[in-house]
Write a structure and sequence with these properties.
Blueprint: H1 2-14, H2 32-41, H3 46-50, H4 52-120, H5 128-141, H6 143-166, H7 171-193, H8 198-221, H9 229-242, H10 244-247, H11 262-279, H12 282-298, H13 307-335, H14 347-359, H15 380-395, H16 402-420, H17 439-467, H18 476-481
Amino acid sequence: MDDSLYELLTPHLASTSPTTTLSRPRAPEQDATTSRYLNRLTTLSLESLATTETQSLAQSSHSTLLSLQALSNRSHKVFITSADNLSNLRTSIPELTRESRRLQAAIPKLDEEAVQFSTKYSRTAENVALTRRKKAMQLARNVDRLSDILELPTLLSTAVSAAAASGTAGASSSTTYSSALDLYTHIKRLQTLYPDSPLVKDVAVQAEDAMKEMTTNLITSLRAQNLRLAAAMRTVGWLRRVAPELENLHSEGENGSSEGALGALFLTCRLANLVSTLEALDPLRELADQETQRRTRNADKQGGQGQQTERFLKRYIEIFREQSFAIVSLYKNIFIPDQSEPDLATAGLRGLDARAKMASSRQSRPGDPLQCLPSALSTFPMHLVQLLTDTLRTYLPNIQNKTTRESLLTQVLYCAASLGRLGGDFSMILTELTDTEDENEEDSIVYEWEEVMRKHRALAGRLEQLTGGNSTAGSPGGTLRSASPVH
């Protein structure tokens, strides 16, 4: 019936005014809305169709139009975009087809590359690229630690330079040198932990250069003027830590105490300081040389000669006495602290037994050219005395005044007694001042020296009787009294 009614109404729908925008409805079998409306028409009466249906349709049309307008106002951008996409749909679909085919063709190549990447960076096999990547990542994670390690040589050099600038006597230098040694110890520990690391090896080489500079500064500080015991002990202690190879050299000190090469180094530095101090007397020495030239040229033996030589020798003996006592005293306090009154004269006797023991160990060290060196202090006083006797032998004949000569010889006697308190009395050595060039004059000097020694022995004996003492050890008379008289 819906189809019949639709056919009946079709001519009227086709005759609609051309100005209308309504299109022809579709057949009921094609549109459910049309079918429902035709079924509704069959339920209405003729009067309703003639009167109310037209108004109902107009009202529904107007309501639908308002809804469409509201929808267009709200969603006009979506409609425009949909229209544009719809217009591009003809070209988009073929392009999508081409791209999908291209992707389908690239899938085997992508799978091949994925398999190759998985094989190349597999953790189950040893891979150079993967190892290099791991090292790079580890380097990135530890960049702060590496930066700290690279700064160690700079910090060490700065500490050494700061300590050298402040000297060894101050507390700041002690702290700075201690910090430098702690840094060097830390670097050596890193070298032990990572022996194959090129970075640590490079840092260790730079640290060794800084330690060489520190060793040079410490050795230079041992030549300083007025070196005190505390500063000397600190410096030697730092040298033992910085250059342990100096202490490991085969050397046998007094009482079997090993001092290595540090003892000889210390005495050499202090001897250099003594020589430089004595060189400050070069102006007086030049005046004394002029008097020597006049004496040898004119053979003038008259009194009143040698005033400049007297000034030179007096100052020379004063410096020699002070410095020689200080050098030996510092050495004993630093390297032989367990001996209260060692005697240098018996050092050789004690060394004989030590040499006998060391001779038995030579077969175990056949390639060592420095086997069993004696203590440096056993020969050092002889070198000091040689400096003094050479000077006396050269310049003492310039002084013709007997009183002046005896005064200088008395000063030398006190110098010998001062060094004798440490076991280095050289008063008897001065009796060997005989020179073949002017034998009579030198014999006169020796005779005067013997007279000075006799006078002091007599004075020491009277002082001992007055004080009632049983010993005069440590005094010039006590030292001289132990020596046999010279005839």
